Amino acid sequence: MLSLIHTDLSFEVWAFIGVLIGCGIVFLVVCILAFQMRRQAKEHRQRRVTALWQPLLEQYLRVPFETLPTLAPRDHIIFLYLWNERYESASDAEAARLIQMARAVGTDRFAHELLHARLLRRRILAVITLGRLRDRSAWTEMQELSTHHNSFLAFNAMHALLLIDAQSAIPFIIPLLGRRNDWSPLRIVSMLSAVGQDLAAETIAQAAIIGDPVIGPRLLRHLPATRSRHGLPILRRFLREQPPSNDTLATCLFVFGEFRDPTDLPMIRLHLSNPSWYVRVQAATALGKLGELEDEARLLALFDDEHWWVRYRAGEALATLNSMSEEKLEFLQETIITPEAQEILAPVLAKFRSLHARPSPSESVSRS
């Protein structure tokens, strides 16, 4: 009797489990079908909105018209992607018309609502759009988002501030640039260059000298990419007024060498005897780019430096001086007999000869 009851209970349990498994399978199938239907509906809506608005965007750039179709919220998001994609390749005149078109369909209002969306990608889309719309009413929210923990959202908010009002944004942005170690210096330079090379150079220099001693040198190394000398007076004043870290000093010397302004020669010469070996390396390298005849002796003195890199960079710098010749290097190789100097002079002389080699008569005939 007990065995029959036990058998009945086991059958009921297994039957219940089977029903649960069957329901789970049905539920999964329904979910998959619903997901596919939703994806198909989304793709259909995207094709429909793109087919309608992409031609309208191009037509509006040629001849603006007053009446535009209305946009449902879900369609408006697709429009934002289309609008921003077209904006990236637009000229200044086209950008002005794109802004006019976006305001006509209420994109500014919709982007403000999208700033509070749950999805991060939609918030970023809203930030980028409001920046390109030059929407001054979004200023406070962009300032708040510029300090957000998400690097990508914060960076785009800072970019939006620059697009809205670069002059007002710079004082707010400078401290941020010196603190955010999750922002690429190369992207920062690229972004700042869009508001003018001179302003970009000044901003990078200011941010570097007041920022974190680790982040500052990373920013400064990209200062030559601006091709503007407007950051140099800021660096000179900074080096005169307070002792910088060795990393910052070495990077400043690198920058001076890249710009090759004779004004910086005294500062470069001063640090040929700096206690830090990598500062001496940068000083020697910079001196090779803008040094004069009298600097040959200074670079030769570094051939006795205790660090190999200092000796090597001094040799390279000596060979790049405008006053240097192959005859001088050969004479130095013959007269300076210390092992350290010979180790440096031999490859430097070989490199100098390869760079200044004259073509043979046969090569000249073949080229002609």
Summarize the structure.
This protein has 368 residues and is an all-alpha fold. The chain is 74% helix and 0% strand.
Oligomer: single chain
Shape: elongated
Radius of gyration: 33 Å
Unreliably modeled segments: 363-368
Helical content class: over 70%
| Class computed from helices, strands and strand pairing | mainly alpha
Order of helices and strands: HHHHHHHHHHHHHHHHHHHH
Count all strands and give the number: 0
Helical region count? 20
* Biggest β-sheet description: none
Strand content: under 5%
Could you tell me the mean pLDDT? 86
Task: Outline the structure in words.
This protein has helices spanning 2-62, 73-88, 92-104, 107-114, 120-132, 139-145, 151-164, 166-177, 185-193, 197-210, 215-220, 232-241, 246-259, 265-270, 277-290, 295-301, 308-320, 326-335, 339-355, 361-367. The radius of gyration is 33 Å and the shape is elongated. With 368 residues, the chain is mainly alpha-helical. The protein is built from 20 helices and no strands. Among the domains are: 48-60 and 73-164, no CATH class; 167-231. Helix 2 (73-88) crosses helix 5 and helix 18 runs antiparallel to helix 19. Helix content is 74%, strand content 0%.
How is this fold's topology laid out?
Elements: H1 2-62, H2 73-88, H3 92-104, H4 107-114, H5 120-132, H6 139-145, H7 151-164, H8 166-177, H9 185-193, H10 197-210, H11 215-220, H12 232-241, H13 246-259, H14 265-270, H15 277-290, H16 295-301, H17 308-320, H18 326-335, H19 339-355, H20 361-367
Helix pairs in contact: 1-2, 2-5, 4-5, 5-7, 6-7, 7-8, 8-10, 10-12, 13-15, 15-17, 16-17, 17-19, 18-19
